[in-house]
Amino acid sequence: MTEKTKIKFHVLAVFCILIFCFALTPVTFQNDTYYTITIGKHIVETGNVDMQDPFSWHEDLPYTYPHWGYDVGTYLVYQLGENIGIGGFAAIYIATILLAMTLGLLIYYILNKLCKNPLVSLFITMIIMYLLKDFITARAQLVTYILFALTIFSIEQFIKTKKKRYAIYLIIIPILLANLHCAVWPFYFVLYLPYIAEYLLAVISDARIYYRVAIKWNKAKLKKMLKKGDKDVIEKQEGKIAKLQLDKENAQEREKKRRQNPYRVIFEKKPMVKWLIVIMIICIFTGVLTPLGEVPYTYLVKTMQGNTTQNISEHQPLILINNRAMLITFIVYILLLIFTDTKASLSDLFMIGGLTLLSFMSRRQAALFAIMGGFVFAKLVAAFINKYDKEGTKAVIEFITTILGRIFAILVVLLLSILLYRGKEKDQFVNERSYPVQASDYILANLDIENMRLFNEYNYGSYLLYRGIPVFIDSRADLYAPEFNGTKNEEGEWEGRDIFSDYINVSNIGTYYEDKMEKYNITHVIIGQNTKLNMFLSRDDNYIELYSDDYFVVYERNTQF
Question: Are the CB atoms for 138 and 33 separated by under 8 Å?
Fold first, then answer.
């Protein structure tokens, strides 16, 4: 395959990836996007990260600003869109498309470096991006995926090429994570573990601890024997030591041959990993290079200690029967590893095993499995093809780079993209079925938002604060949990305002709603028409309906009874 053919294929691949990523990007925003814009605006206008929440009507709630850098960037994009006349939401949508395209192209580039097979790289890139379709949105996680992909690439290249620039990249990335999305900052170090685990096991294997201990023990016995002067016993002991030395050398030779021609698992002692450990230790201190203080070190721990993760959909365990794409992915992995003679490095197997565990613990970690697991999968597939049909890949690439092949490839990608994009052309940036657009207009025009205490639902609280309406709760779940707004007692338990649990109990009718309304001195309620709580409020004379549309209703609560 000539260099010209490779370039033609890369150009075609880039075009296909760009079209596919555009089709995958949703038009309608998720709830986090709205508070991201608002928080970014607050930081830009005040000029600092004050670690205090200004958007809920609860007083003196501390806020950690876990992705303040991304918030600022998102608001600046929003403001740019407003200034040039295309609209802030349109600008964010375009930025999301560009980030998705960047991720797709980066994955393709990395796969080419790792597996040296453009066809496999393109095919796996398309699969990875499809698996990520539910995670492509205007949230900090999209930038995180790019940084994590760069982390794996930098680690692999540092170990392989020994070039210092990759070490510099590895130090810069956690600094960016600490400021763009500190909630995932600890996961950065998880990506090092498979490489370090393989290295440590190789060191232990090479040490031949059994033989070392046995030889040392027998030499100590020999010294005692020399004092007694029994020649027969001494000669026997010396022979035993010599045999242990020979067994040790033979074991080393066998291990060397096994590593040169492994059966299924490639097990190596890679010299640069010891420097990788040094880099990881240095990176531990990058968490202080942020205005958030100790937040990068404590945020994830506090989150796991609370109950917010148990009640938020994306934190729930992955159920394969409900996610057919991931189910098929796991099955293909198992088939490839079991029923082929493809060899995998021990670090890759550790990576797959760890990411599988994380995915089953929390469904949002399936995105990391798709990306990092995709890198491993591409290497396995490329190795299998190179062994059994290397020339077949070249023939396919040469066909695709012909005029007929390019037309065929583009038509296939366009068809898939149209199927994925179908229906999105009618979507709005704000889905009025999910977010109270008209109800917010009514509240702003008719109610005293400065003095009212509004009870609202979790999923659209972010939109309310985007509209400038103080909220009871929004999707910044940590803000409303005692782990973040309270202190530990003598028993080590967190004591503080558990607003999140109170909301869950009220919305699920797990407690008498009026008790909580009284506790917080609620004056008004905005609720979805088809919710459990609305079934009760609509029949309660103490709640006067002020506004109603097809999706939302606003009540005024009688506080005089």
Answer: yes
Q: Is 494 helix (H, G, I), strand (E, B) or coil?
A: strand
Token pair in block for residue 482: 């005692």
Q: What is the signed CA dihedral for 463, 467, 469, 475, rounded to 10 degrees?
A: 20
Best CA proximity match to 158, nearest among 174, 169, 146: 169
CA distance 518 to 544: 16
* Tens digit of each residue's pLDDT (9 = 90 or more) over 220-241: 776 777 666 666 667 777 677 7
* Dihedral sign of CA atoms 506, 511, 513, 518 in order: negative
Q: How many CB atoms lie within 10 A of CB 159?
A: 19
C-alpha–C-alpha distance, residues 458 and 480, integer Å: 11
Nearest to 55 by CA among 442, 549, 472: 472
* Tokens read off for 394: 């070249």
Maximum average pLDDT range among 265-274, 312-321, 405-414: 405-414
Find tokens 């949703």 and name the residue: 26
Those residues with Cβ within 8 angstroms of residue 561's Cβ, 6 or more apart along the chain or in another chain:
542
Summarize pLDDT for 53-102 with one digit per residue, the tens: 999 999 889 999 999 999 999 999 999 999 999 999 999 999 999 999 99
Residue 526 phi/psi, 5-degree rounding, is -120, 130
Question: 117: exposed, middle or buried (C-beta count within 10 Å: 0-12, 13-18, 19+)?
Answer: buried
Q: Of 68, 90, 65, 67, whose CA–CA distance to 79 is shortest?
A: 90
Nearest to 551 by CA among 427, 473, 428, 435: 435
| Mean pLDDT computed over 181-194 | 92
Write down the pTM of the prediction: 0.89
How would you classify residue 468: left for phi > 0, otherwise alpha for psi between -120 and 50, otherwise beta?
left
